[in-house]
Structures are given as C-alpha cells and as structure tokens.
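Per reviewer request, we include the raw input and output of the structure prediction for the construct analysed in the revised manuscript.
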Amino acid sequence: MQSDLVAALDIGGTKIAGALVDGRGRMLLRVQRPTPAREGAETVMGAVEEVLAELAASPLWPDAGAVGIGSAGPVDASAGRVSPVNVPGWRGYPLVERVRRATGGLPVQLVGDGVAMTAAEHWRGAARGYDNALCMVVSTGVGGGLVLDGRLHTGPTGNAGHIGHISVDLDGDPCPCGSRGCVERIASGPNIARRALDNGWRPGPDGDATAAAVAASARAGDPIATASFERAARALAAGIAATATLVEIDIAVIGGGVAGAGDVLFAPLRRALRDYATLSFVQRLKVAPALTGGDAGLLGAAAAAAPARRGPHAVTFSG
C-alpha cells in the first residue's frame, strides 16, 4: 500500500522547521533550526538543507513521496520562488528548485504561510468539515487563504485569500504595500498597539507596548485599549464580510498572536460582522478561533503536498 508520508517545511523569519508527517497528521519526526535571516541567500538555504538532511537521516525518509513548503511571503508558487519580507537575502529565490535538488528530485509544493495555515485548519482544525472557508493569521501582519468547494484555492501564484491587503478604509493610512486603509494597517498586532499609543494609552511598569499588553489593558477595562481592539475587529469584520459576499464562505477561522486576545477581539468582531455581513446568504457566517496553533505551518505544508504525493486525482488526507 502506498505511504501517505510527506516531508514538510515551515520557513519563517525566526525559524526553519521540518517534519515527516503521515496521513493522519501525526508528526513522526520534527526538527528545527534558527533562520539566519540577516545572512546571505546561500547561508539561509544552508539552514534549510540542514533540516532536510536531518529528516533524510531517518529510516522513515524512503517513504516520503513529496515535500510541502509553507513560506513567509510573498511567494510565487507558479515560478517556485520566494521573497520573504523578513528574509532580505531571498528575493526571487528559486526555493522549489533548490529543495527538489536537495531531496533527489522529489515533487515539491510551495504555498505561502497564510495558505499553509488554511490547509492545516481545513485538515485538522476549526475549518474541518466546511467546504468553503476563509482562514486568517492575524499577527505581525495579516494573511490568509481560502478553501472553496472543499479544496484549497491558492490562485496562480499561491497568494489567493490574502485578506490583509483588502482596503477597508478608502481614506485610511498609507500601507507599506502601496495601498491605503488595508485590513493589515488597522488590525495587525503592531498597528493595534500603535493606534492605542497614539491615542494616549501607556504601557505598564514593565514597558510592554505590544498588542498583547493592549489586550490585557482592554480586559481590565481601559477605554483606549478597548477602542483600538474594536477598530481592529471592525476592519477584520469588513474584510471577512467582503470575502464572504464574494465567494460564499461558511466559516472564518482566525489564528495568530492577536487571536490570543480571545473575547477582547472576538466579541467586537462578531458584533461588527452583523453590521457588514447583511445579505441573506452570509448572515449565518461563523467565526471561530484557530485550533492548530504552532503546528499550523508544518501541517499545512504537508496537506498542500498531499496531491503531489498521491497523484493528480488524489483526495485530501484522511481524518
């Protein structure tokens, strides 16, 4: 019987993780290296190759039939290249070809980290059982991905579902992407903290000025901190409602560090969604926190690689 084992890579600005993942989502082997993000392209690739070499040393490796990569973006899956904002040495870097070469020619599937999280949540998390879903990572940035008609929808370059750069405030602040009033510019962790500070919130004695500290203040009743989270929630709700209206999703799953604020974020988000998701076919849209946590990148990379392992007509991994 053909094995469902795949090798998965999760590549970000702080760590490069790898795993051998079976068809039930079990990580049979997991390894990790720090990302030498300030070094040159080949030094970074050297860390990737070290992770792959450690996986390849396992007696399980011969059963691995494909490699899935979830990478910080932007990515260009059609060209197999990556340009992570937080890894300056990689600009248009031919990651797929280099990984294919390092693994002796195994099929390689590349997706962005938001899409990887989506694949993980659809396979083993809060979007499991839903045929149409939006999954989001709300952290330092805001990313996401889509499941449509039961399948991961990546788009030609692997960036479909990148909700962070939908504009929800036409006259809003300029965004580093070049647009204005993007969801990310309002709802990411650093921007929640920035807005709170700009409006007079001050951190406690420990000096923590992160979104997590703003959330703690909001939980304690601070009106400025609460207002910053409410604005972030409205931005997320507007982006989610626009996506749901466009492609008819049934659930929006939210993960990432900002989701750790719990009801400080989710309560105003659900209230705001009622103001934006008004058409009959989106009124029952569900919002849920993500369940796969820190394993999302590896699980999602494995899920994305499953079709390459099992052939063009494969179904998704088993439950």
